[in-house]
Every structure is written in C-alpha cells, then in structure tokens.
Design a protein that fits this description.
InterPro entries: D-isomer_DH_CS, D-isomer_DH_NAD-bd, Dhydh_Halo, NAD(P)-bd_dom_sf. There is one protein chain. The chain is of the alpha/beta class. It has two domains: 102 residues, NAD(P)-binding Rossmann-like Domain (Rossmann fold); 180 residues, 3-Layer(aba) Sandwich (Rossmann fold), CATH 3.40.50.720. 31% of the residues lie in helices and 15% in strands. The chain has nine helices and twelve strands. The strands form two sheets. A seven-stranded parallel β-sheet has the order 8-7-6-9-10-11-12. Strands 2-1-3-4-5 form a five-stranded parallel β-sheet, sandwiched between helices. β10, α8 and β11 form a beta-alpha-beta unit. The longest helix is centred in the N-terminal third of the chain and has 17 residues. The two termini are 20 Å apart. The protein binds nicotinamide-adenine-dinucleotide (NAD). Nicotinamide-adenine-dinucleotide binds next to α5. Nicotinamide-adenine-dinucleotide (NAD) binds next to α5.
C-alpha cells in the first residue's frame, strides 16, 4: 500500500517518524507523492488535493475541520483516530482537576516572582468525594471518568442514550444537561463539535453550575459560548476553567481568558504524548490491511 504522510501533520509530530513506523510495518510510506498516486493519505488538516486519494485518514478524533460530505461525494473513504486518546486526555483532565484542588497553578504563578506565600488553608480541597459531570462518554469521556473515579470522585455523565457506563454513577441524556451539571464541582466537556453541541455550554448552563465549579473543556472551543464564560468568570458565578480547546485557536493575545488567575489555558495539547505517531500508525496499518482485503476500515466517518 502506497501511503502519503501529509505535511499538515507537522505541528503534531515529525512526519518522518510516522513514515519510518509505517515502513517498519511493511507499508510503502513517504512524504512526497501526490495524493492521486497513493492508496491512502494521513493528514492533520484538509487540502483539496486529498480529494484525489482513495482513502484519507485524520490523525485526530475530531474531524470538524474536514469537508466530510465532499469526501463522500468524491468517493473517498475517510477515517479518523478516535479510540486512542482516552489515556492521554484522561490524565490531562485529572491533572487539571488536581491543579485546581491542590492550588498548584497559584503556586507556580508565585514561583515566577520567587514569592513564598500560601493560599488560605480552606482554599484547597481534595478531589476525593467531589462530583464530576462528564459530558460525552466516548473514548475521551470514559478515559476521564475512569481516572477521576480512581481519585475517589463521584462521576455522573451525559450521553445520547441513557445506558450505563462503568464507573459512572448516573447517566443523563442531553435534554437533562442542566440537571446533570447542577451538583458537579467539575464539568468536563468531551463531546465532538456538531450542530447540536455548538454553543452547548451557554449562559444558562453556566448559571446552572455551582459557584465553586470548574469547567474543563478538552472538546472543541465552539462547544462553549466563550463570551458567556468570560461574563460568568467576571461575575464569579463559576470558580474557574481549564481550557485546552478554544475559539479561535490560537487564543488571541487580547483575550480576557488569559488574565483570570483561576483559568488554565493550554494550547490544544491534552492528547499529545511521545508515542502519538505510533498510536496513529497502528490505526493506519490496521486499516491499510483491511482495505487490502477489501474489508471496511475501522473508524470510518464516510
Ligand atoms: P468518540 O466518538 O469516541 O466519543 C464522543 C461521544 O460523544 C460519543 O459517545 C457520542 O455519542 C457523544 N455525543 C455526541 N453528541 C453528544 C451530545 N450532544 N451530548 C452528549 N454526548 C454526545 O470521540 P472521542 O475520541 O471521545 O473525542 C471526542 C471529541 O473530543 C472529538 O470529536 C474532538 O473534538 C475532541 N478531542 C480533543 C482532543 C484534545 O486534544 N483536546 C483530543 C481528542 C479528541
């Protein structure tokens, strides 16, 4: 199978790492062959030339930046990388929650000024016994739920069907989102960006949250009404937020979100990890073999 590792992957990892990995698995991979002359292309972003390839694989789980319908019309098989981010994003979210609870962000801030100063003793809390609401219980949501559960938290979740999920005490459907977030100390967003999830966390949802609650967004920036979030932070109707996904990205220098002491901004890196290219590579190899046998690929979007 002739595979192109598209240049667009460069911001995530060195394309040659994936080329070497795919070659070690017996695929004819390269970074410089036209998509039309390939059996498959691996990309981080869309480029119209990819419409000439028989198969395109996105190295991300989210594919809102790809024109999936145009792929369908062009007869391009389009697959994504859902299924590989549960551990990395789960650990990132556990880190966010621990940081707020144990006040680590404030001490790191003061370290920049070489300042030895404690928060009031009752500013800190333990995650043990606190409640988290995980919105979206797919790969990310389950990875988050498992890790927060292991830290002693009570987990509730929101998913499209009310069926139970291991480690999640109560499952709400999307129409009961307000009820689901009401008692949570942390509300964690792990849904894909779709028409239904655009602006999902609006002023009303933020108002339904506890005043001491933190919002954690590892989904997509557009899932949150950012102006409403800024207003809620200014008015103190929520305690803070950890934002790995923002709208737009990069977050502009003049965004007020940079300035809140109780906001952590990370540059869409919750899933980054040193073996990311191998996890993507394993999906590409598995799908190349399936396509070779004329079977349907896994993680097929269209
Ligand atoms: P997934 O497909 O495994 O899970 C998504 C889940 O959300 C599914 O179970 C789906 O049924 C559910 N869902 C969809 N709409 C919903 C709604 N309105 N309410 C409740 N649940 C809903 O995908 P995943 O791998 O878990 O990734 C989820 C999203 O997270 C991606 O689409 C991407 O945008 C984002 N993501 C971000 C990072 C990062 O680095 N921050 C990394 C990976 C994925």
């Amino acid at each position: 199978m002739r595979i192109l590792v598209h240049d667009s992957v460069t911001p995530v990892f060195d394309p040659d790492l994936l080329v070497d990995y795919l070659r070690s698995e017996g695929l004819d991979a390269t970074t410089d062959r036209p998509p039309a002359a390939c059996d498959g292309c691996v990309a981080f972003d869309h480029d119209d030339a990819l419409l000439d390839a028989p198969w395109v694989h996105a190295i991300t789980a989210g594919y809102d930046n790809y024109p999936a319908e145009r792929y369908r019309e062009a007869g391009v098989a389009f697959t994504n990388s859902t299924g590989i981010h549960g551990t990395s994003v789960g650990e990132s979210v556990a880190g966010h929650c621990l940081t707020f609870a144990r006040r680590l962000h404030r001490y790191r801030d003061r370290q920049h000024d070489r300042r030895w100063e404690r928060d009031p003793y009752d500013a800190a809390f333990t995650l043990d016994g606190e409640r988290a609401c995980v919105v979206g219980l797919g790969t990310l949501g389950r990875g988050v739920a498992a890790r927060l559960d292991a830290l002693g938290m009570t987990i509730v979740g929101v998913r499209q069907t009310p069926a139970g999920v291991v480690g999640v005490e109560e499952v709400f459907t999307p129409d009961a989102l307000h009820e689901a977030v009401t008692d949570a100390r942390f509300v964690v967003l792990t849904v894909p960006l779709t028409e239904a999830t655009t602006g999902l966390v609006d002023a009303e949802v933020l108002a339904a949250m506890r005043e001491d609650a933190y919002l954690v967004n590892v989904a997509r920036g557009e899932v949150v009404d950012q102006d409403a979030l800024v207003a809620a932070l200014e008015e103190g109707t929520v305690a803070g937020a950890a934002l790995d996904a923002l709208d737009p990205e990069p977050l502009p220098e003049d965004s007020p979100l940079w300035g809140f002491p109780e906001v952590l901004v990370t540059p869409h890196c919750a899933a980054m990890t040193n073996d990311y290219h191998e996890a993507v590579g394993d999906l590409v190899v598995a799908n190349a073999r399936r396509l070779d046998r004329e079977e349907s690929p896994v993680n097929r979007v269209v």
